[in-house]
Amino acid sequence: MTVEIALVLGILLVALFLLALDLFRVDVVAMGVLLTLSLSGLVTVGEAFSSFSNPAIITVGAIFIISEGLLRTGAASYMSGNILKVTGDNETRLIVVVMATAGLLSAFVNDVGATAMLLPAIIDIARQTQVSPSKLCIPLSFGSLLGGLCTLIGTPANILVSNVLTDRGLAPLGIFDFTAVGLTTLVVGIAYMALVGRHLLPDRPLDKRLRAVPSLRKKAREYYRLQERLFTVRILRDSPLVGMTIAESPLGKALGLNILSTIRQGRKRPAPAKDEVLLADDLLLVEGRAEEIADAQQPKGLEVEHEVGWEIQDLESEEVGVVEVVLAPHSSLAGKTLEGIDFRDKFGLTVVAIWREGRPRRTRLADLPLRFGDALLVQGPWEKIRLLGTEPDFLLLEPSEQRLRTGKVRWALGILLLAVASLVTGLLPIALASFLGAALMVITGCLTIDEAYAAIDWRVIFLMAGMLPLGLALEKAGAVGYLASLMIGAIGARGPYFSLAGILLVVALLT
Fold first, then answer.
1. Which neighbouring-strand residues pair with 376?
2. Phi and psi at residue 248, in whole multiples of 5°?
3. SS3 state at 306
4. In terms of DSSP H, where are the helices of 73-178?
5. CA distance 117 to 189
6. What angle do CA 334, 340, 341 make, to 5 degrees?
7. With left for phi above 0 and alpha for psi between -120 and 50, is residue 45 left, alpha or beta?
8. Distance between CA 7 and CA 70 in Å, rounded?
9. Residues 325, 391 contacting (CB under 8 angstroms)
10. Low-confidence stretches of the chain (pLDDT beneath 70)
């Protein structure tokens, strides 16, 4: 064993040790491996960072975006929802259909994405049938993992293997080259889980808190009682508000009214920007006291529209949502007001109501000092909501469901079929086909560009990019040949089946 072999094997063992102990995130460990290999001279700087342009990395990132497009348009939930309708309340049938559905989706969608798509439906089925969630969620996980084995794009490992073959001058794997073995494994896995495995699954009772979780719509009406403070008003033609921006109008700070949505020519615009100009005949969904509305009608040229009702959907759109957040136990904001911390400008969100000590607060919230345990009902763009969830001062509760772009379902399914067809026919290499599919998801409006960036699990990308140079270093140092000789020596000349079994055993232990 040479010094180079010992060094690269040492790096490998340390990386495995850190991953096994879970002391650091996997992507952090991978980046540490990349830096160590470069600093030690086992790989050049160019070789170390060339992995970021590896076609396998591009493909995996693009698959994440395509999966998100199917999720945002409701294409995945449409497929899974229809399949899950046939299960009834029979536990065995539920397990079979859940695993088959997860396997079908994860064959063409990232397995994590497939699980996320089905999980809400599975939890809902558990509530309705009173079947233990663990009896369904664990089969869901196994079904997603096994389904990923069925096609080339089902899991990053398959993509990586095909790319290595290409780098060695060999023919790449086709999209369905895995199907014979993968589909057999999926069928055997489903049969085992339905006949034997289900008896070994934990049977934890459904949490009472999950049996009747109130929806945000119900909370808005029954808890926050927003209907008592929401009014629809029309701007009259002779109103002095015409031509003013929302920020310039006296409706906010002077009158204490909160504009939550505008309706112009039948089009609703929740969470309007402060620089939006008010026009005659605009309908405004405002929050405030009845007496404040009455005081504003005559001098401000407003007219209450009594026949126009409202729902929480009027506060939401594809880009805008409504969620609950609570003040974190160790928040530094306790005792401060929303105006004092400049909440609206800092976070780009509007506080619609505050739940405190068993009762709602809905007006004049800007001057109300915050307390520990306060629940804030906030409205604003989804990207701002996600950023708020990363703030240490707030805890984001379960958000209301983001609006699906159901009008784009056909586009999303068509793009998926186009990407698969281009791979099956060999028209495009996998990286280009996947990237084209991801780009079309954005171009056709199935996703926004921000949603596409957010869809990529960058931990996976950096994990792969950081660990790929380790394989190169193992090869350059001669460690690959050294390990191969050790394996052959341990197995002996017993034929290819023993060699295959040895490879499977080593890889299974590592993963």
1. 325, 354
2. -80, -25
3. coil
4. 75-84, 91-106, 111-129, 133-147, 156-167
5. 21
6. 70
7. alpha
8. 45
9. no
10. 76-89, 113, 116-117, 120-121, 123-124, 128, 205-223, 253-256, 295-296, 298, 306-313, 398-403, 491-493, 510
- Whether the predicted model's global pTM rises above the 0.90 cut: no
Tell me if 283 sits within 8 A of 308, measured CB to CB: yes
Q: List Cβ neighbours of 272 (8 Å cut-off, separation of 6 or more).
A: 246, 259, 261, 262
AA letter at 220: A
Kindly give, in sequence order, each residue whose CB lies less than 8 Å from that of residue 347, ignoring residues fewer than 6 positions away: 380, 384, 387, 388, 391
Task: Find the distance separating the first CA and the last CA of the chain, reported in whole Å.
Answer: 26
Backbone angles phi, psi at 289, to 5 degrees: -80, 155
Q: Are 190 and 87 in contact (CB under 8 A)?
A: no
| DSSP letter for each residue of 27-57 | HHHHHHHHHHHHHHTSS-HHHHHGGGG-HHH
For 225-248, the DSSP string reads -GGGTEEEEEE-TT-TTTT-BTTT
Range(s) of the chain covered by CATH 3.30.70.1450: 216-399
Question: What is the three-class DSSP state of 354?
Answer: strand
Residue 192 CB partners (closer than 8 Å, separation 6+)? none
Helix (H, G, I), strand (E, B) or coil at 220: helix
Give the span between the Cα atoms of 490 and 407, in whole angstroms.
60
- For residue 38, count other CB atoms closer than 10 A to its CB: 18
Q: How confident is the model over 106-141, as pLDDT tens digits?
A: 887 777 767 766 776 676 677 767 778 888 889 999
Question: Coil, helix or strand for 469?
Answer: helix
* Pick from 321, 341, 334, 333: nearest CA to 384: 321
Q: Is the dihedral of CA 63, 67, 70, 73 positive or negative?
A: negative
The owner of tokens 């009406």 is: 221
Ordered DSSP codes for 241-290: TTT-BTTTSTTTTTT--EEEEEEETTEEEES--TTPBP-TT-EEEEES-H
Question: What's the half-sphere exposure (Cβ side, CA atoms, 13 Å) at 26?
Answer: 13
Instruction: Report the CATH number of the 216-399 domain.
Output: 3.30.70.1450
From 145, 143, 128, 141, select the one nearest 96 (Cα to Cα).
143
C-alpha closest to that of 63 among 105, 97, 28, 25 = 105
